[in-house]
Amino acid sequence: MFKRKTIRAQLPVTLKTAVPIMIGQMGQMAMILIDTFMVGQLGPSAIASVGLGGAMFYVFFLFGAGTLFALDYLVSFARGKDDLKECHHWLWQGVYLSFTISIPILIAIEFVAPGFITSHYPSEIATDTVQFLRMLTLSLPSFLLYIAFRQYLQAMGSVRPATVIVLAAVLANIFFNWIFIFGHLGAPALGVMGAGLATTITRTLMALGLISYTFYRDAKLRLGLRQSPRGVNLKSQRRLWRLGLPGGVQFTFETGVFSLSTSLVSGLGVVPAAAHAIVLNLASFTYMIAVGMAGAAAILVGHATGRGDRNGATVAGWTAIACIVVIMGLNGVGFALFGPHIAALFTQDGEVIRLCGRLLLLVALFQVADGLQSVGGGALRGLGETRSTMIANLLGHWGIGLPVALFLCFSLAWGVLGIWLGLTAGLFVVALIVILRWEHRTGS
After folding, report:
1. Which of 138-147, 163-172, 182-191, 258-267 has the lowest mean pLDDT?
2. Looking at residue 392, what is its pLDDT?
3. What confidence score (pLDDT) does residue 386 get?
4. What percentage of the chain reaches a pLDDT higher than 70?
5. For FRET with 227, which of 10, 298, 362, 373 sits at 20 to 30 Å CA-CA?
């Protein structure tokens, strides 16, 4: 067992790594919040459409992104050994994987999602949702390519460039939304579909910007990326898939249950669907803080593991966990105290605002659990372990959270409140399993 003063010594390193990553993750989610905020002027139905379309997109996208998160371990482990050639090798394999995994995801979204939406939801929601989703789907290949380069740079210790690019992208997304949603500067007013187009353009620019910076950095520091072998290595691809696939499935389990909840709520009416969309986006925004800290945990634990420093890996993981408990606890207090006021930023509909206020009390309740399961999973990823978090998400969300949500929503007729109570229960179970697994692996 290490002492608290050891965590205090690790804290500056953890925050230096984590804060830029957290800002970058929040910036990505901010674009969805901006879409929701700006289409809110079109009414609750538009909010519900963006919420449903975005939720469905992220189920598919996060399968690919979660698989690419294997680069956290592979590149950081190689960096811990000071093996730059291996770092470059894994970047190129990640690039190939990002394109490979895009193909089945694009096919699935195109041929499965639209038919499902139009057959299950009211026409005022379904039409806009399909248009928004199809437009957003065009961003998938460039977004996954951006993820591959971002994970590589972060594991190499270069975390600020992606943050700067994301912050610039947020401003660009506002500008493109203004043009395409409302029809400014000679563009047609595309409404909800315009929000999808704006986000797609922005994500493409993000990928181009980060790729350009990566090669600029390589030329400036003479790291050898340009000269490294770029061919597909089937053995490395198998290893990347083997390590990354459980992570992709984990994110699919987690986002899938939230997206399914969005589908269920969309059938309860426009007001519950709009409130759910707003609350889910807010919860996802704070979750991005946890994802950022999880990325820092994976990197720092991976570096220590690559050096053969087991104690350093343990301290790095627990420090990140301690940080996220404090941060997410403060988020919970904010949601509990100011929930209706936050919701009022997105809509003027009084019914929607009141329902958001009630749901945000539950979001406040599970903030710490959400942070623990995410950062604990990141720390385990730094050890090269991804299957345990996949199993935890399967058991917690689908074994407990979803059945509780369905029972409370439909059997007891608690509606959307019952859905969120079930989600809350699932998150607590996942957090408990993940933290116990981390404690077991580190013997702490």
Report:
1. 258-267
2. 95
3. 87
4. 97
5. 298
What predicted TM-score, i.e. pTM, was given to this entire model?
0.83
What confidence score (pLDDT) does residue 4 get? Answer: 60
SS3 of the chain: the string is CCCHHHHHHHHHHHHHHHHHHHHHHHHHHHHHHHHHHHHHHHCHHHHHHHHHHHHHHHHHHHHHHHHHCHHHHHHHHHHHCCCHHHHHHHHHHHHHHHHHHHHHHHHHHHHCHHHHHHHHCCHHHHHHHHHHHHHHHCCHHHHHHHHHHHHHHHHCCCCHHHHHHHHHHHHHHHHHHHHHHHCCCCCCCCCHHHHHHHHHHHHHHHHHHHHHHHHHHHHHHCCCCCCCCCCCCHHHHHHHHHHHHHHHHHHHHHHHHHHHHHHHHHCCCHHHHHHHHHHHHHHHHHHHHHHHHHHHHHHHHHHHHHHCCHHHHHHHHHHHHHHHHHHHHHHHHHHHHHHHHHHCCCCCCHHHHHHHHHHHHHHHHHHHHHHHHHHHHHHHHHCCCCHHHHHHHHHHHHHHHHHHHHHHHHHCCCCHHHHHHHHHHHHHHHHHHHHHHHHHHHCC
pLDDT tens digit sequence for 171-198: 999 999 999 999 999 999 999 899 999 9
Tell me how many domains the chain contains.
Answer: 1
